[in-house]
User: Which sequence fits this backbone?
């Protein structure tokens, strides 16, 4: 048996307090699975550590999971999927606040994107989740944006809540962003009256305008299957929608620097309902009481599937690291892969890192059924390296753990 590796870190005893706070490893591990895998690796390196976990998200996919991990009550509802078929979507209540992810009902992962789906996809199911939350008695709605399949400016969502989107002949236009250019006017008088008293906050990890070369259609349309012709059609539709909503409410979705989030749903919700924007990580940090958890820790371990240049734009792991750095708490990172220079990470407060891909026999193994195992191995390696403890052998087992 080896000695307690915590002794290698001056001023720390064997009861090191470690906060494991990962985002999901997209397509491989959920946030909760990642937290469990990293915790196992930390435990292998520090058997006597006091380990706590906080699942983190940046306001998009994983927000509901983060809230549930912090004690929120999970619910499901059958709603309209992005192409009209019924699906079961998960949401939760955190006190009297409902937490909803647009991706759960209207997400890109629910379809195979192509030019036709880029035009047809609707946010209607997300509106149905909001209606379910209102039925449950929620007096505040937190809507996590990100991962959307639709570029409909929230028209489908609002339609599910009672709004009407009419062509010049007075007929309802079809669902989907591709139909918005035929819009003549928006009628909001039949909106669910409960919405007058229930504030909606939209949370996202990026700010993007509704229109223009940096807008919802131009930047994110191609990811949703849109070619140049579809991008142009979606752009025209969003512009018409913004004009019609402004005529109805006086609020201009196109004037917001965040109005393009989730295919323009953020802008549509602001213009129609006065919804307000908050950075996603700030919202999730509040849900899981991250500030207090960081302050209680001696070490924070963050994680995500790919620690790369996009992470440096404030994605969850780096955002958590910045908070820990401000509190004087060291941070390690564990990822499926790492493509950022060590010095760059150190500048963000991440003092060491390890990647599952560096320990698994192949990249495919790192993403396969044993992904959790290789994340655990990487976590053990990161902690031991930071502590100056024993090296991890090539077979993924530490020399003093056998």
Assistant:
């Amino acid at each position: 048996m080896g000695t307690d590796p915590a002794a290698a870190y001056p001023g720390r005893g064997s009861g090191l307090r470690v906060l494991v706070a990962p985002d999901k490893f997209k397509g491989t591990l959920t946030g909760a699975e990642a937290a469990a895998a990293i915790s196992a690796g930390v435990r292998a390196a520090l058997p006597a550590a006091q380990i706590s976990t906080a699942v983190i998200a940046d306001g998009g996919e994983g927000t509901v999971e983060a809230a549930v991990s912090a004690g929120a009550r999970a619910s499901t509802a059958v709603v309209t999927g992005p192409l009209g078929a019924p699906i079961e979507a998960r949401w939760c209540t955190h006190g009297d606040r409902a937490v909803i992810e647009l991706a759960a009902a209207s997400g890109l992962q629910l379809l195979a994107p192509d030019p036709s789906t880029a035009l047809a996809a609707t946010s209607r199911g997300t509106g149905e989740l909001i209606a379910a939350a209102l039925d449950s008695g929620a007096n505040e709605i937190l809507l996590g944006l990100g991962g959307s399949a639709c570029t409909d400016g929230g028209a489908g969502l609002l339609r599910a809540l009672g709004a009407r989107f009419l062509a010049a002949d007075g007929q309802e236009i079809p669902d989907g962003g591709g139909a918005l250019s035929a819009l003549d006017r928006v009628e909001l008088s039949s909106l669910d009256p409960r919405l007058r008293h229930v504030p909606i906050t939209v949370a996202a990890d990026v700010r993007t305008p509704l229109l223009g070369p940096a807008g919802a259609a131009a930047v994110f349309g191609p990811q949703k299957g849109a070619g140049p012709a579809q991008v142009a059609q979606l752009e025209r539709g969003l512009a018409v929608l913004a004009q019609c909503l402004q005529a109805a409410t006086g609020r201009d979705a196109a004037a917001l620097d965040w109005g393009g989030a989730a295919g323009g749903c953020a802008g549509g919700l602001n213009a129609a309902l006065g919804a307000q924007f908050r950075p996603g990580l700030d919202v999730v940090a509040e849900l899981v009481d991250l500030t207090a958890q960081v302050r209680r820790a001696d070490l924070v371990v963050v994680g995500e599937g790919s620690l790369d240049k996009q992470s440096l734009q404030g994605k969850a792991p780096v955002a958590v690291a910045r908070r820990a750095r401000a509190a004087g708490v060291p941070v390690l990172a564990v990822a499926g892969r790492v493509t950022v220079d060590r010095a760059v990470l150190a500048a963000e407060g991440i003092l060491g890192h390890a990647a599952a891909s560096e320990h698994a026999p192949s990249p495919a193994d790192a993403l396969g059924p044993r992904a959790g195992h290789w994340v655990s191995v990487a976590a053990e390696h990161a902690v031991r390296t930071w502590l100056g403890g024993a090296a991890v052998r090539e077979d993924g087992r530490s020399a003093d753990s056998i």
Notes: Residues 70 and 291 are 14 Å apart (CA to CA). Residues 1-13, 389-402 have pLDDT under 50 and may be disordered. The radius of gyration is 23 Å.
